[in-house]
Amino acid sequence: MVLAAVGQLCSTASLAANLAQCQTLVRKAAAAGAKALFLPEASDYIGSSPAETISLARSVQDSEFVLGLQKEARLAKLHINVGIHEPASNGRTKNTLIWIDDKGSIIQRYQKVHLFDVDIKGGPVLKESASVEKGMEILPPFETPIGRVGLSICFDLRFPELSLALRRQDAQIIAYPSAFTVPTGRAHWETLLRARAIETQSYVIAAAQAGPHNEKRVSYGHSLIVNPWGEVVASLGDEYEEPQIAVADIDLELLAKVRREMPLLRRTDIYPQV
């Protein structure tokens, strides 16, 4: 077994302040003996408007946030999965998830394919597509010190087709870094995460933003790690006072046992393969 850490923070429009929060989480994860740290969606910043979201985007080569985390990964000898923004060619941004290895190199990049456009009665009106370019492909799962990881982001959680496609490519762990709203978090967060773990027989690691980012936006928190049997094996709350981590062993023998003893033999002769 090997230890994974899930981190929780409250990003604002200050990249420097957000980097400081993430540096704290890296040090906590390293001290706990974790081999990989999973950080939330938009860890670099959360703007208060589409215009601010676009204006703050930097390439990874020019981002003080990304460069700082690459340095931390190298010093701590820790793999880091983190959600960031990158400029898009059409004047929007990309909602991206990058994997930084323990040498500080960016070795994987996934761009969010399902964008969060909602109008919640009595809650927030959010239109991610106003400032964000949608991704156009699923990133194949890749080898890491904790197992084969498949990447997705936040609203992707509501689409089992994506997690099933990752499972079909032998993902053992699926990451869902997120910034869930409070109303949708209360209603669906844990239920959806446990469902994705059960139906793919995989570990699910969901790092979450928590608390008030600005006067317009508050995130639900409740970062979780769920095992392939659907059990929550690590969790955090919704209150934000300081950056926090939770850790859990990734037991690939348990994963193999679940898949062996309850094989999910799909009837692709009568419905399409996802």
UniProtKB/TrEMBL annotation:
PROSITE patterns: CN_HYDROLASE. GO terms for molecular function: hydrolase activity, acting on carbon-nitrogen (but not peptide) bonds, in linear amides. SUPFAM superfamilies: Carbon-nitrogen hydrolase. InterPro entries: C-N_Hydrolase, C-N_Hydrolase_sf, Nit1/2_C-N_Hydrolase. Keywords: Cytoplasm, Hydrolase. It is found in: Cytoplasm. The keyword Metal-binding does not apply. Transmembrane segments: none annotated. It holds the Pfam family CN_hydrolase. Residues 2-252 form the CN hydrolase domain. One of its GO terms (cellular component) is cytoplasm. Belongs to the carbon-nitrogen hydrolase superfamily. NIT1/NIT2 family. This is CN hydrolase domain-containing protein. It comes from Aspergillus aculeatus (strain ATCC 16872 / CBS 172.66 / WB 5094).
